Amino acid sequence: MATSDIDIHKLRALVNHIPAAIYRCRGDASFTLEFFSDGVEKLTGYPVSYFLSDRISGYSKLIFPEDWQLLRSVMQEAMDKKERYETEYRIRHKTGEIKWVLETGKGVYDETDQLSYVDGCLLDITERKNAEAALAKTRDEVKRLALVAHNTTNSVMIADADENIIWVNEGYLKISGYTLEELLQKKMGYSLHGAGLDENVYRRMRNSIEAKMAFKEEFISHTKEGNQVWLEVDCQPLIDENGRHIGFMAIETDITLRKNTLRRQEELLQRLQLATDSAEIGIFEIDLTTNEVIWDDRMYEIYGISRDTELSLYKVFGTSLHPDDRERMNQVIGELLSMKKEIDGAVYRILLPDGGIRYIESHAVIKKSESGRIISLIGTNRDITADVLGQEKIRAQNKALRDIAFIQSHEVRKPLANILGMIEILKTTGSISELEIFQHLVDSANELDQQIRTIVNKTNTLDDELFR
Fold first, then answer.
1. Range of the domain at 184
2. Which terminus of the chain has a lower count of CB atoms within 10 Å, N or C?
3. Where are the alpha helices (DSSP H) in 312-434?
4. Tens digit of pLDDT for each residue in 322-356?
């Protein structure tokens, strides 16, 4: 065995214990491979024999082309300066996986100062590079989150695993009224206690925090000055890469304006409900883009329809409308939809499912989009059947009274005039011996009596319920 072979075997035995791939290349233009330690198989997935069978390009063809050009440039510059070189690059593992390699090397020169060999070491730094990439990504995300947290109008608070506040953004300081130094001495939930505390909400939040679970709640918070603020809070537990709970992050939105607006709307709705209930008014809305109809409970009562009906309310209205009123109502609705009028009222009749008739007083307004397009029709219905029938009774009674007045003025006064005339004759003559005159007086009195009876009978037939 040649001495060089013995040296190589000794070198291999030595370097195979190093957790890296050790190599020697010739100092020629191609850096022809002379030696690779067994560590190259773990790094590349290929055995040493693979590279010895292709000493010029066996390893270089595993390197990403753009990285190979960089490696050659770095090596050549180091050889020219007789310096050590170090660079990082990517290779393609036999499995197709991308590996990151740290290569360091240095030229070996002969007595004439000519490059004889290049000795070097290849280290697998894939894990480090992945960690660096993950860290860089995390840092970018943290920067973006920090930027969002600082610029958002919402408040952001971070607490540690013991619920101690460790960081808040400017939005939190503005809402709470506290300074950062004051808040760093407080725990999560400090602002909940006081007037307006909802025990059920507080209990749910505490259960979620103790179980290290996310939650979203709305509650009243108290500022440093003691003012009440409605907050919507989305709280998330913070978990590190090892699955360990390290704290909480809460994003809070001031919803005081929204809550106050809703409260005022509810009050208005309650007053409106009271008014409509007292007046027995039904409210409807028709979406003109979909023909969808919304009725309140009173509308169903007015039209005699069950809330569980599967019929289209749009069709219910159309079929309920009395045939004699349909043309007139179509004209009224058409004027609204053509924007000739923005508000209108009408009285019409509807047919009930049992065949009955109701009189409806309706008022409606159009609802427009921001662009001015009509999108819906909103209105009220009131059952005025009793009013209409009552008015008909009044009209009938008025007619009867007019008939009585006619009788009184034309019929009763006629025999009375006769009597008065006879009495005047008697006064003039001073005698009642004339039987004919006396009989005439009797007949006139009887006629007057009969007319009075007729008046009484007509009066007795009047329905005076409305006057009681």
1. 152-257
2. C
3. 313-320, 323-337, 385-406, 413-429
4. 999 988 888 888 887 777 665 567 889 999 999 89
